[in-house]
Sequence to fold (401 residues):
Amino acid sequence: MAKFSGILGSLVILLFSTGCASLPRNPVPLDSQLSAQIPGMPDIRAMSGQYSQAFEDDVFKTEQQYREFQGLSPTDELSVSMLVLSGGADDGAFGAGLLTGWTASGNRPEFVLVTGVSTGALIAPFAFVGSEFDHVLEGAYTRATADNVYRPRWISFLWKDAFLDTAPLARLVERYVTQDLLDKVAEAHQQGRRLWIATTNLDADRLVIWNMGAIAQSQHSGALELFRKVMLASSSIPGVFPPVMIEVEADGRIYDEMHVDGGVKAQLFVNAEVLNLEAMRQKYRASASTFRDIKRTLYVVRNAKVGPEPEQVERKLSVITGKSLTSLLNSMARSDIERIYQITQAAPNAEFYWVSLPVEYIPQSLRPFDPVAMRKIYEIGYELGLSGDAWREHPPGLGQH
Fold:
């Protein structure tokens, strides 16, 4: 997203200097925003900061399903791996390369939970289903160009809802997110694995966590369309890309919600405060569950650099604004990595590892979605995934990259 910061900075200036008419919409009333549901698909999402009984029940169900699928008894030891994918726009080529290199090493685990935000949301379903889709990740992140992602709106952006048009990205999502992929996500969900993607609901001012496996398994006629919409929304940088409008039902009436990039609220997430983890631990201990016999290994992939990126900033409003936005996102990512680390420290038998685009990497191009630059980033990720020694056990701190 850093390469879009200059565009976003210029856009902010334009918005302050021009008056733009609003496009028509039918928003959810304020007092119904937290209770709105997707018609025909209840309990497939939760909002951050709001406890979700449906998500808690689903997490408990996960262990039972996964044990049964693995042929394990309730008393057998269980080891699970989880993957957290961040935003990063075209730097998502790093995560795509890391996963394919990891596959080539022969050590890539099956993930019982995958979460994704922004470009991480575009990678997440393919990482979740498994290495058979590595070729999709390689193709999408090494051969796609800016023309495959967006097209300019020129002067028409003044009466639209974004600077650019993402119709090409929507077509790309439609090309790769097929009914076959949906069926495979549904199958994995039935086996006790979970795929969560985050968007930002601008109306409610909250991160929304979507249970993508539940959507896929619903057999609803609109499941594939919603699945694609969520992926597109999670990667829709507000102002630069248009928001995705999602139809919901509240109090027996149909409304629309405005969803944008999940990175507005979080660059990375695990449970996004939809679960009360301590209360869940108490329930596990009080039941016959073998919660303490589960070994959890959590892998965090930051699709960008982590840490300060010094440069001589041009004394120009759009450049200053863009650099400030980039710095803000970097700080968010560091805080999110720290938060996830603390979650693993509080959990029994949990291990934490993270990796990011090396700070030594020098961008090959300042143009977004330059295929030559993306190929280089992909190769860096591939080599780190293949080597297996790039993972760090402690979050970035003072003096660390």
Q: What stands out?
A: The CA atoms of residues 240 and 278 lie 39 Å apart. The chain has a mean pLDDT of 88. The chain has twelve helices and eleven strands.
